[in-house]
Design a protein that fits this description.
- With about 475 residues, this protein is α+β, with helices and mostly antiparallel strands.
- The chain folds into three domains: about 1-200, Beta-Lactamase; about 210-295; about 300-465, Histidine kinase-like ATPase, C-terminal domain (Heat Shock Protein 90, 2-Layer Sandwich), CATH 3.30.565.
- It contains ten helices and 13 strands.
- The strands form three sheets. The protein has a six-stranded mixed beta sheet.
- Helix 7 (about 305-315) crosses helix 9 (about 340-360).
- The longest helix is centred in the middle third of the chain and has 51 residues, at about 145-195.
């Protein structure tokens, strides 16, 4: 990134604002320190002088004179002022030769006066008080040391602000360069995604921050987009694969039918229509699965009763079960409430019941059970069919897969895939349960353990038997 781009970047502007704010805050702190130290030293000196004058003014002259002399003798820096005057205002002792124009109230007053050595003028504070004998005591102190201390503090504060400003700007520039490089890396990654590289992901930092949360959200969005694109491609491939065979067969039959008599042409047309109907059924099922996987059906969720839904399905399949002499039973409590799409759940359970009846031999048994658990509902469908071979257990939920033992029966291998997708949309899992004979399919919450295959029988459950 060039200098011009850096100066125009938002990160650099934020860095400058940060430096200005730090500078103002530091200046305010330094100013407060200066004001507090300067005023405290001034107030301390004034209070000390007021106290000294108050005590000295009450002393007798014979005792006061030696003390004043010792005071001036120790004043090597010549910052002390002392003046003792009699009742008529005549000078008795000290380096203050005339009464200053201040009130004799025992309080400190700042005036401009001649220095003790007579070399110039300076600012000093004086305190005057009347003595018991009518005389006057004047004491003062030069403000030179206080002003020197204030200037020293001010100089130190000013010198300290410079490096603070410089370090703030340097820190701001470093941070802005880091942020600019990171944003530039994110921008380049987005450009690669725009050019079609859906496997590209935005770079995340090692230390999570606000930008990192956005990056992770965008990466999750890209994962979902990639999944949907792959799903769309898979649906397209599946449709093309499943349509190719019936369309090829229909094409060949139509070519042969052109050379057949009229009565045979009608039979060929019926065969072609049957092939096309199977192809359309497969395409519809594939599109239905794709729609379910995209989650578009979740907006139609509403409260429902799984027991009532299951009872309706069992009653609907009663004629088919009776025709095959199959015993169809429903074991369920009075009610199992759930929130979902009733049509989708009806479709999933219908697929499972239809498969169970289809693969169960004559005089067999199909049992459906529904129960409620703390973490969600549980639906189980058992049959006396050929069961699922161990080598097929990991494949039966894949699209178009059909086990070799059931390949001779009608179907397109999409029923279980659709049922599993519907269960997933509802936050449930379709899985194979344990069965000593036949097959067992369970729709359970995903938090339940896969090895959990036993279920408690509710005392309120009543069997509903159809067929014999």
């Amino acid at each position: 990134m060039g200098i011009a781009e850096l100066l125009r970047s938002t990160a650099f502007r934020l860095a400058v604002v940060f430096a200005v704010v730090v500078t103002l805050a530091t200046s305010a702190v330094f100013g407060f320190v200066y004001w507090h130290v300067a005023n405290w030293d001034m107030m301390r000196a004034q209070a000390s002088l007021d106290d000294e004058v108050g005590k000295a003014a009450a002393e007798p002259t014979a005792q006061l004179m030696p003390e004043l002399e010792r005071r001036l003798t120790r004043d090597l820096r010549q910052v002390e002022y002392v003046g003792l005057f009699d009742a008529q205002g005549r000078h008795l002792y000290g380096n203050v030769m005339a009464l200053p124009s201040i009130p004799l109230d025992g309080r400190t007053h700042i005036i401009w006066t001649t220095m003790p050595d007579g070399t110039g003028n300076e600012s000093a504070f004086f305190v005057g008080r009347t003595r018991p004998d009518g005389g006057t005591l004047i004491m003062g102190r030069s403000l030179y040391e206080i002003h020197a201390l204030q200037q020293s503090i001010l100089r130190a504060l000013v010198i300290g602000i410079g490096p603070t400003i410089l370090l703030s700007l340097i820190a701001g520039i470093v941070l802005s360069l880091r942020a600019a490089r990171r944003l530039n890396a994110i921008h380049l990654a987005i450009e690669r995604v725009i050019r079609g590289d859906l496997l590209e992901r935005l770079p995340a930092s090692r230390v999570p921050d606000g930008i990192d949360e956005v990056v992770r959200s965008v990466n999750r969005m890209l994962d979902e987009i990639t999944r949907l694109v792959n799903q769309l491609k898979q649906v397209g491939d599946n449709i093309a694969h499943d349509l190719r065979t019936p369309l090829t067969v229909a094409h060949i039959r139509l070519e042969r039918a052109l050379d057949e008599p009229a009565d045979e042409l009608r039979a060929t047309a019926h065969q072609i229509l049957a092939d096309l109907n199977r192809a359309l059924t497969t395409v519809t099922a594939l599109l239905r699965i794709s729609e379910l996987e995209s989650g578009l059906q979740r907006s139609s969720f509403a409260p429902l009763d799984l027991v009532k839904l299951s009872r309706d399905i069992v009653e609907f399949y009663e004629p088919l079960a009776e025709a095959k002499s199959i015993t169809l039973t429903l074991q369920a409590p009075n009610k199992v409430p759930f929130v979902g799409d009733q049509d989708l759940l009806h479709e999933a359970l219908t697929n499972l019941i239809d498969n169970a009846i289809k693969f169960t031999p004559k005089n067999g048994h199909v049992q459906m059970s529904v129960e409620s658990a703390p973490n969600g509902p549980r639906v189980e469908i058992r049959d006396d069919g050929p069961g699922i071979l161990p080598e097929d257990r990991d494949k039966i939920f894949k699209r178009f897969y059909r086990a070799a033992a059931t390949g001779h029966l009608p179907g397109n291998g999409l029923g279980l895939s659709m049922a599993a997708t519907i269960a997933e949309v509802h936050g449930l899992t379709l899985r194979l349960g344990e069965a000593s004979s036949g097959a067992c399919f369970e729709i359970v919450p995903p938090s339940r353990k896969d090895g959990e295959n036993t279920r408690p029988q509710s005392r309120r459950q009543t069997p509903h038997v159809i067929g014999a």
